Predict the structure.
Amino acid sequence: MHHSEETRDLFITGLRNAHAMESQALSVIETQLGRLESYPEMIAMLQQHRRETESQIARLDQIFQGLGESPSGLKDTVMSAMGSMQAMGHALAGDEILKNHMADYMFEHFEIAAYTALITMAQSMGHTAALPLLQQNLAEEQRFQQMLIDSLPRVTEAFLSRTASGQKADV
Ligand code: MG
Ligand code: FE
């Protein structure tokens, strides 16, 4: 297959976008964890995915190093700010816990798509060093996405019963 300079540039751009996406993810998770009080299952899941997200960023940094490139600090900063605004916006929802849960589930879909495209590019370019790192990131997103949808009925039940008994239910 023909590997042009343009193909490499597209891969680097995709990696920079993924790095910024993970900065956004980290900022969303930090904001949600800073507000959560009443849902221990959600707190534990987000703590685990925060650690995974930090590892994912480290893996992307490793890929950049191998390519002699670096992530975009500007994109990271912008997406990180967007992440906290996005999470804070849900504070007005009344059912913040559910709004966050659904938004997190949607975000995992985006991450899964991003890593699927990057893996395809890395395969097409024969950049095999990046593959296990991108595949591990993808696997973590897929697992967290599954955990989110599996836990949603339990969290919804807890939200309903806490609301019905007059306990704090929004976060
Ligand atoms: Mg991620
Ligand atoms: Fe994720």
